């Protein structure tokens, strides 16, 4: 490990993440909940340890930090009806059941609600999971959304500009109307955040009912022809592309640490249009995107 120093040690949440216990953020929650011990004593957040000398236990089970694990990066096509947890006190179907045959214990990166379907990533690499989930890295997440009964330009523009959910305005999104039928509209929505039930709440905020929600891609990783309930390992080009996106976001953040906020007044009403209305020309798509 890069931070292996005899005097300083490594922060315990980093050790947990690098050994596939959970993401760093989730590991911090486990430490604060008193589930982690070091040499028989409860660990503290930020505590530095020597993973080759100290005995670390998580929920009573010793963490084998000396064992070099194979890193798994999994893409799953989550079917509807499964909750994104490793276990459920209500005895509902869990996504963990669908990846039981992965040789190492993996956990989901982010989540999809029970009634949503599509691409869900799993890993035992905590640092990787944290980077993919963190909004500062701007990893695009693409959804195919079926709403009822119809959508107008104003509603689409509101979704693209951002709407207030749970007291906080969403970041700008890209909204494309794919098809329109009586009482039913299919859209593609691309966001960079990953808030709880975000797409559903965004649609509800503008008066739309979500009939179906499917995530089709996360960054360069696409669902493709993967069947519901099946999983595959990410390819090397996919991992390289994800890493490139993360590094690019880091470099931009370092280059402009105090960049001014976007002036919404100058961009209001400036939208990109990709063609005619869908009901007039079904093959054409109309895209609404906040111009920066």
Automatic annotation (TrEMBL):
Short name of one Pfam family: S4
InterPro entries, per the entry: PsdUridine_s_RsuA/RluB/E/F_cat (IPR042092), PsdUridine_synth_cat_dom_sf (IPR020103), PsdUridine_synth_RsuA/RluA (IPR006145), PsdUridine_synth_RsuA/RluB/E/F (IPR000748), PsdUridine_synth_RsuA/RluB_CS (IPR018496), RsuA_PseudoU_synthase (IPR050343), S4_RNA-bd (IPR002942), S4_RNA-bd_sf (IPR036986)
Gene Ontology MF terms: RNA binding; rRNA pseudouridine synthase activity
GO annotations of cellular component type: cytosol
This enzyme's EC code(s): 5.4.99.-
Enzyme class (EC, first level): isomerase
Annotated protein name in UniProt: Pseudouridine synthase
Species this protein is from: Hydrogenoanaerobacterium saccharovorans
């Amino acid at each position: 490990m890069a931070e292996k120093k005899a005097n300083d040690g490594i922060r315990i949440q980093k050790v947990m993440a690098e050994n596939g216990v959970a993401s760093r953020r989730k590991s911090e929650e486990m430490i604060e909940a008193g589930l982690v011990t070091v040499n028989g004593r409860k660990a503290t957040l930020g505590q530095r340890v020597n993973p080759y000398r100290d005995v670390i236990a998580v929920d009573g089970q010793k963490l084998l930090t000396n064992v070099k694990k194979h890193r798994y990066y999994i893409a799953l096509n989550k079917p509807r009806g499964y909750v994104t947890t490793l276990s459920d006190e209500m005895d509902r179907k869990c996504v963990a059941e669908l990846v039981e045959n992965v040789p190492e214990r993996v956990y989901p990166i982010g989540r999809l609600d029970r009634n949503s379907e599509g691409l869900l990533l799993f890993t035992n690499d905590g640092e990787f999971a944290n980077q993919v989930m963190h909004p500062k890295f701007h990893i695009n997440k693409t959804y195919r959304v079926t709403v009822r009964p119809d959508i107008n330009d104003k509603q689409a523009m509101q979704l693209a500009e951002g709407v207030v959910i749970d007291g906080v305005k969403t970041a700008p999104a890209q909204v494309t109307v794919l098809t329109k039928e009586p009482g039913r509209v299919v859209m593609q929505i691309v966001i960079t955040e990953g808030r709880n039930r975000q797409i559903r709440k965004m649609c509800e905020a503008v008066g739309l009912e979500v009939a179906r929600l499917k995530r089709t891609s996360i960054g360069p990783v696409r669902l493709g022809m993967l069947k519901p309930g099946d999983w595959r390992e990410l390819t090397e080009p996919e991992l390289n592309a994800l890493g490139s996106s993360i590094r690019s976001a880091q470099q931009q953040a370092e280059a402009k640490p105090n960049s001014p906020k976007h002036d919404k007044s100058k961009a209001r009403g400036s939208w990109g249009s990709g063609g005619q209305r869908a009901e007039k020309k079904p093959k054409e798509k109309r895209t609404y995107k906040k111009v920066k």
